Amino acid sequence: MPRLNRRTLLTGAALPLFAINTRPARAADFNLKLANNSPVTHPQSVRQQEAADRIKAATNGAVEIQVFPNNQLGSDTDMLSQLRSGAIDFFTLSGLILATLVPAASINGVGFAFKDYDTVWTAMDGKLGAYVRSEIDKRGLIAMDRMWDNGFRQITSSTHPIRTPADLKGFKIRVPVSPLWTSMFTALGASPISINFAEVYSALQTKIAEGQENPLSLIQIAKLYEVQKYVSMTSHMWDGFWMLANKRGFSAMPADAQAIVARELNKSAVDERADIAKLNGSVADDLKSKGLEFVEVDKPAFREALKSAGFYAEWKKKYGDEAWAILESEVGSLS
Ligand code: X2X
């Protein structure tokens, strides 16, 4: 990682929290690794680097976090095991994929649960997020308080436009590796294939999958429009990333360093949410200009299809009454 120099500190977007360190350079007390699956230019990667810079400044160089974006350390599945073993210290992972380890963590992805961002942040910064974090804690990981936005997910296709649930019949759709995703697209009649994000572009290019689903911002930043023709505005779920830490590694730092790290990671999460909100204002026009054809859909028809396939009843049972009641207290009745 390029070492911070005086110039970077002085021209950085945020002022260092402490005066510029005038001590001679020395090795950091804690050299930590933070990894993600997002392209280098995604706000997630940009804001994580900013957090690392602020943490280094605020700890006078004692905590140095090296950021590895874009699956540089492997797929989500690989990085989750590295986080658990302590090979990496921080990792942002979709709650839905984290559910392979912490089943409750996919609960924000229940189909059509959230109607808008206000509802999302009230729930995830409130009771629902607190519940999921306590479940994550039971598995030896720590989740920072503030979740990072991925977004409301839309379905893309290279073969035919998806307008109705019937158009999904037998549709070979790539989904991330997560039981909730597979269950949901199976309930909609599609043929989901689990593939880590690191392989999505090539899976679409080689037509292993006809389509995939992701937020518009990521469809743009990962250039998926190059290998897809249509995007259907289903907003079928909201997805976000938990900033996870290995509990042993995190607890090895002194309490004041832990507090600085948590504060700055949470600050960057909130900054990243604002970046995505801003992107959301322009991304559709940009994707249209790049040739992606937008398809409006009858969302209630998709929700109805999930309901009649027994999707909500099945997942209520899986999450349990307590978790389901918390979800419904945030988003309203789902049955
Ligand atoms: O794998 C995906 O599609 C992504 C990037 O959206 C997630 O991390 C869930």
The CATH architecture assignment of the largest domain turns out to be 3-Layer(aba) Sandwich
Class inferred from helices and paired strands: alpha/beta
- Tally of domains: 2
- Structural shape: globular
Query: Unreliable runs, pLDDT <50, ≥5 residues?
Result: 1-22
User: How does the major sheet shape up?
Assistant: 6 strands, mixed
Distance from first to last alpha carbon: 50 Å
CATH topology of the largest domain: D-Maltodextrin-Binding Protein, domain 2
Plain-language structure description:
The chain has helices at residues 6-11, 43-58, 76-85, 95-98, 117-124, 127-137, 179-187, 200-205, 216-221, 247-251, 255-280, 283-289, 299-308, 311-319, 321-331, and strands at residues 30-35, 63-68, 90-94, 141-143, 148-152, 154-157, 172-175, 191-194, 211-214, 230-232, 238-246, 293-295. The chain has 335 residues and is an alpha/beta fold. The protein has two domains: 6-150 and 240-280, 3-Layer(aba) Sandwich (D-Maltodextrin-Binding Protein, domain 2); 152-238 and 282-331, Bacterial extracellular solute-binding protein, family 7 (D-Maltodextrin-Binding Protein, domain 2), CATH 3.40.190.170. The strands form two sheets. Strands 1, 2, 3, 4, 5 and 11 form a six-stranded mixed sheet that branches. It has a six-stranded mixed sheet with strand order 8-7-9-6-10-12, sandwiched between helices. Helix 2 packs antiparallel against helix 11. Residues 1-22 have low confidence and may be disordered. Bound molecules: (2S)-2-hydroxy-2-methyl-3-oxobutanoic acid (X2X).
